[in-house]
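cache lookup: miss for this entity combination. No prior model stored, computing from scratch. Input as submitted by user K.M.:
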Amino acid sequence: MILGLPTLSFWLFLGIPAIVLLAMLFDCWRILTGRKD
Amino acid sequence: MGGCEYPTSRFTGLSDIISQSRQRRIRIIFLAATTIGAIVFGLYLVVIIGIGLVAARYQKTEADFWVAGRRFGLGVLVMANMAAVMHGGAILSGIAFAGQFGGVAILPYISFVGGAAIIFYLFAKKLRQSGGFTIPDYMGDRFDSRGLRAWSAIVVAVSSIIYLIAQLRGMAFILETLLGFDFMTSLALGTVIFVAYVAMGGLLAVVWTNIAQFIFMWVGLLILVPYVYDAVGGWSSVLQQVEAVAPGWTSPTGTQWSGWYMVSWYLIWLVAYSTRLELVTKMYAARDDRIARASVPIAIGLVMIFLLYGNFYLGAAARVVVWDQLASPDQAFPVLVTLLLSPALAAIALTGIASAAMSTTDSLLLMSGSAIAHDLVRRCHDEPNGIQREEKDYLRISRISIVAVGAIAFVCAIPDLALILRIVSYAIAIVGAAFFFPLLVGMTSRRVSREAALASSIGGTLITCVWIFGALTNTSWAGIVHPGIVGLATSGLLMLAVTLFTPPVADEAINKYFGEAK
């Protein structure tokens, strides 16, 4: 168990998509605030 | 599970709904609480017809009907995108598949974010700025080809109508179970209700009813939370328990899959999400291109969070609590609900999910209707032949096409054609082969030619259909790999090869997507 979750692969399964999603959300914030075209 | 035996109903959720509707156990719940089920369902019907009537007041032009006048702000578009991706069927089959194969394996999160990233970074802005209504609009404009527009409209119309036939049968079984009518009455009632509000209110009615269905579904799911928590505990607790009863459940390949199988499953989902017509065409309805783009990652992020509960946690709980009592995995959610909730609450939970399971029906009606009225009649026939009609005439043609599509699907849904259900599970492969590369390459390269797009879309679709025919007739070569993978490979290779020998599309046509040539 790592921080309540069972395996390292489980962390990767959640973590990699989460990082990509956060990058998109950051760009999304920049688009909505006019910082990015 | 064998190499190519994909749990394809995950894509539609439909066969599960149908088989579920026939389960005696669900009937018992509803018979025990028919009144509550009927009241909740009656409320649902009143809400969706009311939305249709209100939305009808906003319909003046064809643009009002197909893209809701491009009025959607961020909040509405995010909810509309979520409802397009996550409906009741996805929850029912998601819990069944998660319970059976493992939670990490069946939730292709990397495909969700990959598909969303393709739409977010490559498609959304250009689609919205191009000012079209439909994917055939994009295909016709970007490649300056009436033939490609007509071909795309036929693919959209045929694939949506086949899917619609299966959806109408699924809906009739649900109404049969909920309201106690016979099959024909249920089929006629359901078809009339859906055709009526879609023909009245167009996309505006579809989006708001989807949001209402979405709320019904989440009321149904959230009722369960305290009861499931009492039974299996929190996140860590349920994962420890499920790993003990089903070793490998939390691993990426789950309880039964091979590494290759998992990769092909993720790949099919990546293409499925980036070409999901219900999602991609919503970009046209945004107020501006910033709203269109921003709605995608927000919606997908929320979908991923909700599915952690709606598929993953509930799937694990079902595996721990009820798995040894099930005749088939399809029963996972109904049996879990029956076991943990009182009959009245169980009826509310199941009715909420059943209502939302119908939410793709209206989108399919709208898409096949737009392919006929807008793409084939207006853009492929009237405009090239110099025929001019008023907007109110096109609005009437749009409504007639919705009624016509509803009537065709109704007649085809009467006989019990098992073949249609099997074809439906492959519809996603056909759409992917027809549109993935023309969208992806057409949005990123000025060089790609009209001939390449035609060859890619038609060749990929035809090979996919041949492969599906092979799979349906249990031919040995068709079992090696999923039809979607073969169709995509064909489509990609044809796109590359034909582009090398043909000239790019004229600048006047593609400047809309790339700006002025330098």
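stored under new cache key. The radius of gyration of chain B is 22 Å.
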